[in-house]
Write a structure and sequence with these properties.
The chain is an alpha/beta fold. Among the domains are: 166 residues, 3-Layer(bba) Sandwich (FAD/NAD(P)-binding domain), CATH 3.50.50; 96 residues, D-Amino Acid Oxidase, subunit A, domain 2 (D-Amino Acid Oxidase, Chain A, domain 2), CATH 3.30.9.10. 29% of the residues lie in helices and 28% in strands. The chain contains 9 helices and 18 strands. Strands 2, 3, 8, 9, 10, 11, 17 and 18 form an 8-stranded mixed beta sheet that branches. It has a 5-stranded antiparallel beta sheet with strand order 1-16-12-15-14. Strands 4, 5, 6, 7 and 13 form a 5-stranded mixed beta sheet that branches. Helix 1 runs parallel beside helix 6, helix 2 crosses helix 3 and helix 3 packs across helix 8. The radius of gyration is 21 Å and the shape is globular. The structure holds flavin-adenine dinucleotide.
Length: 400
């Protein structure tokens, strides 16, 4: 399955995109084998290494070249499902706890960026989520009130406030503070290099073809040989339908562009992350080298688009959306891509132990906040694997 097509921006920012990893012999036994070397697998490996576990990471591709290289790199504590909606869905305690976990995950990602992935342009930003229509003003007000009540750093802007801060105006906006942007490709690559340096075993171009649970271990057949591990984690992204069948998931596709660097971004208040209340939404951010990245126009098709003309057509529409907000900027498309994109039907990720298997775990960060889910999920799985209590696991478990 092609996870993405078109021209990706992030891989062009890395010095040696496809440097060969050291070829290692397969050890007799690993504590944990992680299938998938994207954002989820890399963060799991990082988190488990802190516990001195012996880790193997296997990927059928070159690592970091799956969906994680198509990621637009917005990190937010707000989710596709607003907090007040999540409260209606799962109750106040769990919903607020989930939002708090997302907020903490941004701090954990920042720590990793400062230590293991220093070239990842992690920058704290505020987010501006504007009401797409007058009807959505109430929604923004309700969300503002509930976030404020639970101590999240938020502000509310009226239409007048917006005019003072930005060259465009919308009926209202919710401002969340303490979000961030990152270059997801160099971030994952940095973590993988760190994991390798700290003794994790990385195997690229190694497809897992069969997994069998034995009495005291798991046997994992791959295209390069058989591995044995005490536990395994599936961090396989959007390619295989999740086992959370009770809940279900949709694989759709989405589009993004990166522009040529813009001469003057001073009209872009705080270089904020900009998105909206409409679903699916349009969103934009800037990059460390002064580009604009915009994404959206989701379509109900599971496969990444094949046609270059189709991708270019969507890219042009994204460019027009930027021009509507920032008409003074000269927008030239430099990169345009389309990619598969997974969302669970209840807007929560799938993280946890397989309900019927003893030694198999999943980390599937479905949803627009996938990176934040990968981070918080790596901590939940660490606890489950080490048999430590983790009450948060209940919120995202596979058979919820
Ligand atoms: C256009 C777009 C924009 C996005 N924007 C954002 C954003 O702004 N912020 C955000 O947080 N998230 C965003 N996301 C989501 C984010 O990209 C995902 O959450 C993230 O990439 C998921 O990482 P992963 O490791 O689960 O998947 P991947 O990066 O796809 O890694 C999974 C790996 O598993 C490997 N694999 C699968 N099956 C096997 C097998 N049988 N054997 C061996 N290896 C296997 C694959 O080769 C792949 O490398 C966006 C996604 C898209 C498509």
């Amino acid at each position: 399955m092609d996870l993405h097509n078109g021209s990706l921006f992030w891989p062009t920012t890395a010095a040696e995109t496809f440097h060969e990893r050291k070829k290692l012999p397969i050890d007799d036994h690993y504590d944990v084998l992680i299938i998938g070397g994207g954002m989820s697998g890399a963060l799991c490996a990082y988190t488990l290494l802190q516990e001195n576990l012996k880790i193997a990471l296997v990927d059928k591709r070159v690592m970091a070249t799956g969906s994680s290289s198509a990621n637009t790199g917005l990190l937010q504590f707000s989710n596709d499902i607003m907090l007040f909606e999540l409260i209606e869905q799962i109750g106040e305690e769990k919903a607020v706890r989930f939002y708090k976990l997302c907020q903490s995950a941004i701090g954990q990602l920042e720590n990793i960026a400062n230590t293991a992935a220093k070239d990842s342009d992690f920058i704290r930003r505020k987010s501006i989520c504007f009401a797409s229509t007058d009807e959505d003003i109430k929604k923004v007000q309700k969300e503002y009130a509930v976030l404020k009540k639970h101590g999240f750093p938020v502000s509310y802007w009226t239409e007048e406030d917006m005019k003072q801060h930005l060259p465009f105006s919308k009926p209202a906006a919710l401002i969340t503070h303490g979000d961030a942007e990152v270059n997801p490709f160099t971030f994952v690559r940095g973590i993988l290099d760190y994991v390798e340096h700290k003794g994790g075993h990385l195997f690229e171009n190694a497809e897992v073809t069969n997994v069998t649970e034995k009495k005291d271990h798991v046997s994992i057949e791959t295209s390069i040989g058989t591995f044995h591990a005490s536990q395994i984690i599936y961090a396989i992204g959007y390619e295989t339908p999740p086992i959370g069948e009770k809940i279900g998931a949709d694989i759709n596709r989405s589009y993004a562009i990166a522009t040529q660097p813009i001469d003057d971004l001073s009209e872009w208040e705080g270089r904020s992350l900009i998105w909206e209340t409409k679903r699916p939404y349009l969103y934009m951010r800037t990059t460390a080298d002064g580009r604009i990245i915009a994404g959206g126009l989701d379509e109900d098709e599971p496969e990444a688009p094949q046609s270059e003309d189709w991708i270019n057509n969507r890219a042009h529409r994204l460019k027009q959306e930027i021009e509507k907000l920032f008409p003074m900027m000269d927008i030239q498309i430099a990169y345009a891509w389309g990619a598969s994109f997974g969302e669970s039907l209840d807007n929560l990720p799938f993280i946890g132990k397989h309900p019927d298997k003893k030694r198999q775990y999943y980390l599937l960060g479905y949803g627009g906040n996938g990176t934040v889910y990968s981070m918080l999920g790596s901590h939940i799985l660490k606890d489950l694997i080490l048999q430590r209590p983790n009450p948060d696991a209940e919120i995202v478990k596979l058979d919820r």
